[in-house]
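Record now logged underneath.
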Amino acid sequence: MSRDLNEALRAMGYADTGIPALAELFPPAIIDYLRDFRVKEVHDIIETLLYIYIAQSSSPSPGSLGGIAEQSCYAYTSGPLFALMEAGLIDSVSRHGTTIITTTAIGELIARPLTEARIRALDIQDLAHDIHAAVPALLAATVKGSYINKTLPSTLPGTEETFIDFLLRNNPAFFIECERFASLLKEAGCAVLAYDPDGSGTDSVVYTFPPEFAYILKGMLEAIDPAVREHHDILLESFHSTFTVLRYLTCGEDYDRIRASSAHSRELSRVLGLLAGSIYTLEEAPGTDGADIPRFIIKDRDLYEARLREIERALIVDVSEKIAIGRPVKEPPLLSRVEIPLPSVEPLPLDEEIEEEWDEIFSEEEAIEEAPVPLPIPSPAADPARPGGLDIFLGHAPDGRRVNWSPGRLNNGHMIILGGSGAGKTETIRCIALELAAQALPVIMIDFHGDMAPGIGEIRAYRIREGGEYYFNPLELDPSIDEITPLRATSDFVDAISINFPTLGIQQRRKIKNIIKGCYRISGITGKTATWTRVLDFDDIEGEIMDCEDETIPAYLEDIFDYKLFSGEEKISIPTILSSGITHINLNALPENLRYLFADLFLRRIYYTLQAMGEIPRGTENDREKFRLFVIVDEAKLLVSQKSGSKTAIKAVLNKYATEMRKFGVSLILASQLIAHFNEEILANIAVKFCMRAENKKQAQENARFFEVSEKDLLNFQPGEGILIIG
């Protein structure tokens, strides 16, 4: 039995007493295969298997197969996917241009008992007392198939296509409670976030529960007072009947469901009574259970639709009032209008005093009021007002008071800047970078268009181009960075290629990975750190790739070698970048796909370097010591998501930065045009969101909804003016 396997299971939280039995689930051939991996890699492989096992249990659309979109499976690298595929624990199939992953029979035989062990470890009694009784009452109905099947929206639904969408959309507190429950299960390894294989966009990211979900709900419902449980069952069933009847009367849907249910039939009769005067009632058609289905024709369309709207409004009121969660509502984020540094912009008069909570975010001399703030181009920074403070000067309020951004005093130091062409995003980025550099803090700017670097101050500039002077080798190893093994470097490289070349199939990526692994072996580089001083030359890989029997692989990768993307005269030094000052990575001379590939891999390498330095000690009081690097990315959408057919697939590199890099001392400053360019995972981990002038009506519509301002405001802002949310 593999000691690494036992250690991996222990790291996954399984009890020592149960590990021997769980380890016996793995066939000898699988155990032998896993011997080549480190404990952390075995851990990632098993976790990915469990993720796929749970994620594939979501109910597919009629006529489609089960499974989970491949992009959902990327925790950070595709390495575990390749390992699972080679071990025969998962399989893949292409459907409408999307690769769908499923567990094999052997994979399921391993994953099911591991998942069941996690469920048995849950304190279901405690969970039942912590979560509102309406939550399991609702989700138990999903097990029966009344509403949905083992999934829950991860964000407040934007539409009301299903009953659960309608319910949660019209009772946000209930949604928050359901999401809290799903999040607790996710933390315990008993739920996952995944794309619906037949969904599209970030709205299709849902919490998915395992096939054994019914066991959890059964235990919770048994722990709830029967009278309370019955109350919520009756209430939800009543809401569901009214919702179903309204769908039928509005658009003709769910007629068969009404015929099959006496409760729905009775509700239809009740609602038709409320529509008297707008319809003619005809003879009744018998239902399958003996119930009579009322039939009618509309005699006054306007009156009919008006009364349906009244019934729907009454249902919405009932949904919002009768499911009372009673948990304290989180305070809304702080909102203010500000202006970013464009000296031609004149200040507008103050409207009202800002709330006291604002002062907790900014330093003592930074009180802001809800009004535009003119921000001059930053001059060399003075000593910070607070001892050990990190207060980035943004400008002055109309009364002359300073406005500072203090990232060390927020939950995280991340910021999003939105706006159309000419709104002032680039100037904002330059000013912030100069102010940080003036305080001796390191800044790296990932620039896809070549226009982001400040025109003043000392800039460490690297222009990446064909046959250029500067390069970095993503497959080079460092004995001092234990996190980057040959397998991890290979997986990262193939993962970045698959993200930037989404039509590359999983079998082709598998071949590329095997070629690189073979080149490592030929170069004498193994899993032993003593061999990591040797360098894998990209010229050696080029020869193997170009000789590959699969002609599509050289076709995909030839630009990498033609442009000498990862070879050159001078290697970019990450320790130098982390020392201090502004580093500008200019990628505008590369083709678009190579720009994103280089940025993706370079940010991954920085990630591992900072991870090897360890977490920032908790309780650090000096704000400057909380940050090792400020990463600025313009057009950040290019490293967050990509179009793949009708589906938006998450690019994991910036997701990883937003969710995990705060503890390693990283602040992200991301710029783009639309809030929709950032998925919920990113937005939930960004403390500061700044929205500037929209370029057109479409941009204004999308951004205005999120920032809760009018489209007219976003279209009429002057350059540099915008809306700021903190929290």
Notes: The chain has a mean pLDDT of 80. Residues 122-224 form one domain.
